[in-house]
Design a protein that fits this description.
Distance between the termini: 40 Å
Order of helices and strands: HEEHHHHHHHHHHHHHHHE
Number of helices: 16
Shape: globular
Helix content: 40-55%
Number of strands: 3
Largest sheet: 3 strands, antiparallel
Strand order of the largest sheet: 1-2-3
Oligomer: single chain
Length: 382
């Protein structure tokens, strides 16, 4: 093969890459275009999680006394119905819009009906029928989806949801996951420790504190939020919170996170950050939660202090944990810590000595070394 032919092949290859990139940018190559690797495929969201879908602005308007129309919710509802990753972020804010005393009266009937249909149509957990690109298993997604499902089921107990179960049954299922998640955080701390992902945890906990009908859930959510804010208070300095972290991106390291700043100012300095909020932290800004005075004092103390803490667990202790009474709980405990992405040993411990039906069916483990993708979902190929 002469040099001209080689150059032509190389040029054609790069032109092909450019065409694919343009198709992806235009949204023409999305979730239906899958990448196969033996028995698995990757599903990707049609819309980026960071897309502004307007639910925060709508909630702020309702809080200020304005009416909410159906068209105001169009983008947020479409995002969730599309089962895009990050749908749980929208749901926690939309649920506050519907549940907050007085806000429901500020919804047009058509808007109210649209939300009711939306809440009943969500795939809230991995054991429900279907496959989508939403991440369920990381620490913040576990509590968000459980809180969303619990509150939706509480709101519409007699309604039939997409999997045929009633809202009451969904509330019961979500309650079990919530209490397990809260117990794990109380005992072992956070895998996403000192992270900007605390904002997602705080949003879910704020909604549970305000709206959960179960006193045990409200109390334990309050305790875990106190614990989380102790992490923040002990590492905050003059309103900033940038510390060693269990999960962090370069931009957060270089410039911190504005939502975290708003939380710090509101929690420890009493600032009303409602107008400034443009993200999921709006749920904390509007919450009835009040920071314990001891945490305020810690946050405002600027003297030099050494803070030592630990978060985590040893995989060899898993079999001695009597709270891991099911495969689902083992998966929540281990996958929430994220070793399962890279270590076969943690996958082994997720379900004991051998993969089970729950593991195969609901976490999409197919064969060999197949595992989950982080920003997409690996699913068994038909």
């Amino acid at each position: 093969m002469n040099s001209c032919a080689v150059q032509g092949i190389i040029a054609a290859f790069f032109v092909g890459l450019v065409i694919v990139a343009l198709l992806v940018q235009a949204g023409l190559v999305t979730v239906d275009d899958v990448r196969y690797n033996d028995s698995v495929r990757v599903l990707l969201s049609r819309v980026e999680s960071a897309t502004d879908t307007g639910e925060v602005r709508v909630l702020k308007r309702a809080a200020a006394g304005e009416m909410v129309r159906a068209r105001d919710l169009t983008d947020a509802i479409a995002f969730v119905k599309g089962e895009n990753d990050g749908s749980d972020f929208r749901l926690v804010t939309l649920l506050r819009l519907r549940l907050r005393l007085g806000y429901g009266n500020r919804l047009e009937p058509v808007a109210d009906a649209a939300l009711r249909g939306l809440f009943a149509g969500v795939r809230y957990w991995m054991d429900e029928p279907g496959v989508n690109p939403m991440v369920y298993w990381s620490e913040n997604h576990q509590v968000l989806f459980a809180a969303d499902e619990y509150l939706a089921g509480q709101l519409y107990p007699a309604d039939r949801f997409r999997d045929g179960r009633t809202g009451r049954e969904h509330r019961t299922s979500a309650r079990d996951r919530l209490l397990f998640w809260l117990a794990q955080r109380w005992r072992y701390g956070f895998s996403e420790w000192n992270s900007h992902y605390y904002t997602e945890d705080i949003a879910a906990l704020s909604d549970l504190i305000d709206f959960a009908g179960d006193g045990e859930v409200r109390m334990k959510a309050t305790m875990v939020l106190d614990l989380l804010l102790l992490d923040v208070a002990s590492r905050a300095f003059h309103g900033e919170f940038i510390a060693a972290s269990g999960r962090l991106y370069a931009t957060n390291r270089m410039t911190a996170d504005e939502a975290v700043r708003r939380i710090v100012r509101h929690a420890f300095y009493g600032a009303d950050e409602t107008r400034a909020s443009d993200a999921i932290d709006i749920n904390f800004q509007l919450s009835s939660y009040r920071t314990p005075p001891a945490l305020v004092a810690i946050a405002q103390d600027v003297t030099g202090t050494a803070v030592t803490s630990t978060a985590g667990r040893n995989l060899t202790d898993i079999d001695a944990d009597t709270s891991l009474t099911s495969d689902q709980r083992r998966i929540m405990a281990l996958w929430g810590w994220k070793p399962s992405r890279t270590r076969r040993r943690s996958m082994h411990y997720s379900t004991g000595s051998a993969p089970t039906t729950w593991w195969r069916t609901h976490t999409w483990r197919c064969s060999g070394d197949s595992t989950t993708g982080y920003y997409g979902v690996w699913a068994c190929r038909p």
